[in-house]
Amino acid sequence: MSRDNLKNQIMLNPIPPRLLSISKSRAIRLLFLALLNNTDVVIRRILAEHRREDLPDDVLRMLDACRFWSNHNIPVGESATVLRFLWWLNESSGARRNLDRSGTLADRMVTLNPDMLNWTIHELLDPARVPEQTSQLASAATLYDPGKYPRIELNCPHHLRITYEVLDEWQNYKAGGVLPVCGIDPTIQAQAEAFLRVLCGQELQFEPLQQEDLPFARAFLGELVVEEARERWPSLAHHESNRFVEMERALSDWDTKHVISSRDHRVIQAVAMRAILKGSKPKKVLGAISHRKAVAKSWPRFEQFIEWAYEQKK
Q1: Phi, psi of 307 (to 5 degrees)
Q2: What is the pTM of this model?
């Protein structure tokens, strides 16, 4: 890197944390542990540090499930993680809450079978048994009954590693340590920083580390990353959309029609950022998003970030 590029990199303003997002993976796991332990300490911590409108929709669904668990009907929104976690609690405890799905989750394939309660951790991760190839059931089981399920050491899925980290921090807290924090979502932060660097004239520095990076990586690194992702993260076919297919459709829609009609939050974010880096103004791009509220599933302040980032370019 030349000295001029290094100087430009140093001069970039840091992204204000309020424009990023809380880690929904950590928040949902901490809230689930709090529900299992009949404490509102995590709820109070989150609401003391964040306004409701700044919280991802998935986090709000778990937070409200914790607050109103005595109700019969529990809305889970579009969050498959919240659905699977609360389903596990339902089946294991006999709570029998009605878990209401909406949006993209209403049409998604979600394999839920009471026999799963008797499966081993490896069976819960077996794609022959769970076609969606998700680790969420393994996470739910581990959080619900940590002593029953041995930890996966080799080729541990990314989100199951997060589960182990959060569980260790929670057990340390119960032993007298500090209450774990949710923190900023590292996936969103890495993508936001990569976008900002390119927007301000620097080279793209981004490496896809886990499955939620695929839409951004496809938008900015090209088609080659998709083939690798099919091998590494086949579960991407079973998210809010089949992201292998949806990204190609969304990119084509923008290039040919200048519209972003996807309902998948990460696809919308990736295509919008690519459009801006290709020269479109934020107002035009954001106005072309058919489902603007969808991005709040993971990044409620996405539009405010885009506007702030564009100002840094000037």
Answers
A1: -65, -40
A2: 0.92
